Amino acid sequence: MLRAEDDDVARRFPEVFQRKINMLLNTQISRADSRGDEIVLRLSTNGNTSEVVADGLLVTTGRVPNTDGLNVAAAGVKVDERGYVKTGEFLETNVPGVWALGDIVGKYLLKHSANLEASYAGNNIFNPESKFNVDYNAMPHAIFASPQVSGVGLTESESKTKGTDYSVASYDYYNNAYGSSIEDRDGFVKVLVERRSGGFWEPTSLGPMPGC
Q: Is 0.70 topped by the overall pTM?
């Protein structure tokens, strides 16, 4: 789970999550059948087969753009093979005067990304002589599960792959007043700092988010 997150988060999250939820990892669903008001799933886990009977089935296969419903083709706006609107570095489509931002461009399907792109698109529309391409560096993200997860920037494994010279530190939530008061013994904050610049590289956390 959470393979795109920092390794420490990816390890800790399932440990905490499975205290509340029966998790079956490395499992394939070979068949799903209706049996009266129930749903029966046939599973294969490490070569062992089993069945799970449930009241409902939630299939989370991701999101798709609604450019077909919007019929952007009628305006001549080009889309990619996944159906997302194609834009240039300034968020303008192939049709002059038509711009796109947010989920429909398929870069980051996050509100933070839409907010960022809106500021660039606004500038580029109203200041055609002074356009800027979107700087997606250090895009923040969050997972509103229990426990919650948030992060921004490169993970530690990504930093190693890039050969970045960095320092790393972690701090348990339980060691501050708020974490102690809610008895959060699982949450932590992890920060990576680039030695050369001294700048923050990857703050990531597992646990309650401030302001949420």
A: yes
